[in-house]
Amino acid sequence: MPPKPKDQLPKIPQLSPEEALVAAVPKDAFKAMFYLFAGKPDSKVKLFRRKIIVRFEDIRDLNRKVYDKLKLHQIDQCVASAVVKFEKEEILEFGTWAEFEGFDWKVPYVTQEITVRWDFMVKLPSYTAPQRNTLTVRLSASPSPKDMFQIMMSQDPDDPDVDGKLGLCVARVDFISHRLADELIDVVEEWNNALRQPESACTWFCSLERVDEWIARAVHYSVPLFFTALSVAALGYWISSESVAITSPVLVLFGRWLLVSILGLYCAIRFSHSLAARCYRAVNEYGAFIPFALTRGDENEADKVRGRNRTHISRFLLSAGFALILNIVAGVLTWWMLPKNG
Q: Long-range pairs for 150-155 at CB < 8 Å and ≥24 separation?
């Protein structure tokens, strides 16, 4: 057969020097060479559960502390950015720190989440090129318990779901230098410990949450118990005060007493259960607060939350006080009747 013309021969693709190198070097060897020049970042996440109030000045102070720490290392470049999420899924993204500081925060929106991120290149003696490190601090008003697993599993610092979604304050460092990562986490921890706490976290009523079940049980069982004691004492008082013979009228009266006692005990159980539930809910629902004090909307929402907390205290005092009064009255009547029972 005659040879094919040159224009009919298959064209061999021309590879660039970089593509030829990747094609010639085995995959594992190429990865090893890549990590030799650009380190493989690790991640460290720390969760802070302390109840805090964050103001604009506090965020500015955190930025200053981070930059002061970075000045102690050989930092090539550093860019600080922020993302603020308001209610109703309204999001503001600030590409630079100057934009974040220059924003007019006198807006009627309620802040739900703030994420501040520092991207910087650090020079390390083990690498020929500066290595990228990232510090992300996420402040949230409504954390989702399912998001901590996503933080721990994610390894991509560019992933928007990596910033930490559990807890009031979450700090994450994607790092090459372990020493710098530990120092940055310590900076965030020191800053978090210095923040002001909400009023509800320091009141006597907040400490009742540790014994909320005991309080509910005391209210639930004490009222039927004292009613039963009063009913038995009333029967003894009636028997001891009169010469009672077993006759038909006496049996009718005894049946009425038994019926009234059973109905009264049932009502006492239901009523005490309602009082106990109100006390339990008041203790557990108390302590809500707005962790942000940036906007006018945050201030207005904080006033509403403080009003609801005061309502919870009043509801608890009324419910527990009413149960206590019932028990005192029943106890006094029982004590008054028992001496005449002998």
A: 151/45, 152/45, 154/43, 155/41, 155/43
